[in-house]
């Protein structure tokens, strides 16, 4: 897939769609940030509502955000959600019974919430653990505070405990120094990549290292030196404002909000990101989420 196929509407009339993941049968689970609805979309575009998460409080950038299908869905029927309440951001788990979403249970809570920079992307890694991207909610100093859950990538067991092998055995923090990560993806060698909103100058694509410090607010873009991990690629904020990220056909694909385009990025065997190429610039407006469906790339436009 050197060039992605022209985008088309699989399903329309969605209200601020934010997250998407896929069931083993190829159906998509989609979240709506403002309404709190959890939707089921078949490969032919048939849409059904599984349920609503009334705990979600939509305000600013907050609300019902990411969704991740359990890697053991065929046996546990579980979906995981990241959402904003009136007091925090948290991860919930709910089982699907037929076409009905069961009562959610709290897996992990206490993540700072705010009007902006709530993070929200969640995804299971190849290791079976849940990775959770959080934002610094407009308080940059949180990103460098190892005791704060804001401005981090967290790594959890499906039950919400710090995953074995974390940098600090008692902490869920996998990496820190992030402003607002909204994209997580693993390449075919199991390396974790993250797309991150910059402030006023540079947006970033980062290769995530265990225990890595990515510099915010001390550094925006490159220039961190030995103390901080430099991004692999940077973009002027008007060309990206990156959100969703996925791996497909040997490339990373990154959706741009303000940039209103889809970026394809080469990754070498050694783990170096190069040669970003843009597609659909200005054709479809802001692109929020890009996800690799079993048979094609799906891009969600809010």
How would you describe the overall organization of this protein?
It is a single chain. This protein is an all-beta fold and 302 residues long. The chain has a single domain, classed as TolB, C-terminal domain (Neuraminidase), CATH 2.120.10.30. 1% of the residues lie in helices and 41% in strands. It contains 1 helix and 23 strands. Strands 5, 6, 7, 8 and 9 form a 5-stranded antiparallel beta sheet that branches. A 4-stranded antiparallel beta sheet has the order 1-2-3-4, with no helix packed on it. A hairpin with a 5-residue loop joins strand 1 and strand 2. The radius of gyration is 18 Å and the shape is globular. The two termini are 25 Å apart. The relative contact order is 0.12. The model has no long low-confidence stretch (mean pLDDT 94).
Provide a compact summary of the structure.
The chain is mostly beta strands and 302 residues long. The chain contains one helix and 23 strands.
Task: Tell me about the largest β-sheet.
Answer: 5 strands, antiparallel
Query: What would you call the structural class?
Result: mainly beta
Please write the string of helix (H) and strand (E) elements.
Answer: EEEEEHEEEEEEEEEEEEEEEEEE
Overall helicity: under 10%
Q: Give the oligomeric state of the chains in this entry, treating copies of one chain as homo and distinct chains as hetero.
A: single chain
Task: Determine and state the CATH class.
Answer: Mainly Beta
Could you say what the CATH architecture is?
A: 6 Propeller
Our measurement of the CA-to-CA distance between the termini, rounded to an integer number of angstroms, reads: 25 Å
Global outline: globular
- How many DSSP helices? 1
Radius of gyration: 18 Å
Domain unit count: 1
Tell me the CATH topology: Neuraminidase
Tell me how many strands there are.
23
Low-confidence stretches: none
Strand content: 35-45%
């Amino acid at each position: 897939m050197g060039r992605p196929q022209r985008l088309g509407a699989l399903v329309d009339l969605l209200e601020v769609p934010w997250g998407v993941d896929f069931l083993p049968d190829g159906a998509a689970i989609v979240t709506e940030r403002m309404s709190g609805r959890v939707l089921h979309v078949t490969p032919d575009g048939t849409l059904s509502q599984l349920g609503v998460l009334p705990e979600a409080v939509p305000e600013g950038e907050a609300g019902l955000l990411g969704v991740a299908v359990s890697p053991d869905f065929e046996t546990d029927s579980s979906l995981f959600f990241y959402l904003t309440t009136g007091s925090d951001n948290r991860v919930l788990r709910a089982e699907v019974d037929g076409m009905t979403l069961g009562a959610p249970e709290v897996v992990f809570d206490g993540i700072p919430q705010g009007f902006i920079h709530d993070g929200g992307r969640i995804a299971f890694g190849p290791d079976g653990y849940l990775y959770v991207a959080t934002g610094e909610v407009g308080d940059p100093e949180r990103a460098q505070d190892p005791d704060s859950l804001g401005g981090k990538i967290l790594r959890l067991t499906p039950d919400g405990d710090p995953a074995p092998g974390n940098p600090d055995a008692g902490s869920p923090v996998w990496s820190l120094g992030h402003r607002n990560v909204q994209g997580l993806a693993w390449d075919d060698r199991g390396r974790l990549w993250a797309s991150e909103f910059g402030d006023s100058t540079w947006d970033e694509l980062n290769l995530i290292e265990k225990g890595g410090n990515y510099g915010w607010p001390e550094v925006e873009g490159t220039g961190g030196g030995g103390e901080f991990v430099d991004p692999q690629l940077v973009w002027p904020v008007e060309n990206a404002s990156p959100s969703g990220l996925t791996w497909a056909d040997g490339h990373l694909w990154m959706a741009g909000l303000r940039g209103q385009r889809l970026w394809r990025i080469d990754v070498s065997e050694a783990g170096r990101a190069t040669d970003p190429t843009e597609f659909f610039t200005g054709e479809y407006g802001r692109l929020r989420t890009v996800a690799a469906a079993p048979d094609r790339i799906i891009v969600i436009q809010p």
